[in-house]
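Progress report, Aim 2. The chain analyzed during this reporting quarter is listed below.
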Amino acid sequence: MGTETVTRTWGGKIADSIKGVIIGLILFLASFVVLWVNEGAIDVSKAAEKAVNISAEEVDTANEGNLVSVYAYLSSTETLGDPGLLYPGNYLTLNRYAEMYAWVEKTESETEKKAGGSETTTTTYDYVQEWTSMPVDSSSFKYPEGHQNPSMAYDAASFRVGTATMGVYPVDMASIDLPAGESVSLISTDIDYTSGGRIDNGYLYIGRGTISYPQVGDIRLSYTAIPNPPSSPMTLFGTLSGGTIVSYMYKDKKLYHARYGPPEEAVAKLHKEYVTTRWIIRLIGFLMMWIGLALCFGPINAVMDVLPFLGNVSRTLISIAMFVVAFVLSAVTIIVSLIAHNIIALIIVLAVIIGGTVLIAKMRKGKKGASAPGGSPTPPPEPPKK
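Predicted structure tokens for the chain:
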């Protein structure tokens, strides 16, 4: 454990906030790109729902070249393992997850603002040992002495069988998009003991300690897999070509997906994945815009810090205001992008704009005609003078 105290002058804070403006502008502008591109993302479920369902029992010749779906068990004559760690077993896919027991740096900071705009930040560094999938190089620690992490002996990895079939149709396992695997319950006969590993509390454990009493550098591995055959049939979507099913191109996006369940259920899962991803990226774009705008106003906050109370009030008000601005701009960007990426919606909007413009022009022309000299009634003749 150790502490570090850093004092920043008022001028130094203003200079740092000006640098933050550059980062803020980059985030702000990039957020529009993220939101715009995201709304143009292709939903392959729209194509999948139009696929012709064919039998898996015999090769279909009537739908050659068409987008098809086939509902069957995915299976292979091959076995699959993790070389040097797990013996080959009945898996179609196998994913390794690796964690190392390592030193992790924890920081806690307290900042004291002073009249005149300066501030003093005291940071406490603490070091604990815990399981992590991304151990940090100890040289980057503030106090590396006594907190050395060895290099990680095993990383995450993924494996697939080379060939598989769905009924009579071969499947290209290298390019097919498959669902997530199921957790693998390891047993003693699964383990290749040449690695020095052993089963400990469901993990493949490699190291000098145990799960209950680990030592720095120890590794624990877990696995997920799609069994061979899977627990239930899947629906595969693709193009029927020469007695096999290959990738189907839908608006420049590849559709070669397999999901559990019959076609209707598989289509619903593809659409749910699309919607979930879309909303996650929308949130990311909004946060980029909000943070970027807040950074752009950093110099104002830094100047107001001449009196700490004013600086705190300024940060709160600007954060709230920029939240509203970012929300509105994000919503407008999303709506405009949705229209621009949808040709039918774009045509409708353009037709409404053009129609509205013509209507307004006609109404204005009619008003001008009504107010013109020729458009008013003829006044009665004056009586003859005596």
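Helices lie at 10-39, 45-48, 263-296, 298-304, 308-341, 343-371. The first helix runs from residue 10 to 39. These observations will guide the mutagenesis work planned for the next reporting period.
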